[in-house]
Design goal:
Number of strands: 8
Strand order of the largest sheet: 3-2-4-7-6-5
Radius of gyration: 15 Å
Number of helices: 5
Structural class: alpha/beta
Order of helices and strands: EEHEHEHEHEEHE
Helix content: 25-40%
Length: 178
Amino acid sequence: MSGIDESAVFHPLNIAVLTVSDTRDEATDTSGDLLAGRLVEAGHYLAGRAIVKDEIADIGDQLEAWISDPEIDVILSTGGTGFSPRDVTPEAVRPLFLREMDGFSVLFHQVSQKTVGVATLQSRAFAGQSWDTFIFCLPGSTGACRDGWDGILALELDSRHKPCSLAGMIPRLRDVCA
């Protein structure tokens, strides 16, 4: 049966949050705030937080710094996944992947369709793995981040989720979450 095994030990992850936006700053970053708040409320550690412009080089530089940091297990990004000319998150992130997580996009659209209907087609949400770091790229709207966290990530990043969770793929947890 799928769900949280309350009898199992919870293993917190070190998660960084990246906001990709030409217009948001610390005071107006509601999507980054939502993700940071949700992950801390779930018991994980906020390992880093940054806001970068919609520029391939800026996005890549920040991600590469976090990917090379052995203390960061997961990166959540918000913004830059739409179809405007400035939305370049997929173009910046995909070259960093060793593996893409095709199912994340499918599942995100299923969850999102329940809240925004066919407008979910306007998102290029995606995820993958760069070395040992998982990266999830969500749209920039607070609602989309809520859908992504509440409908997918809260469960998939919880080491107690059965039959399995991505926490068991984190090198330091492979033996304890198997």
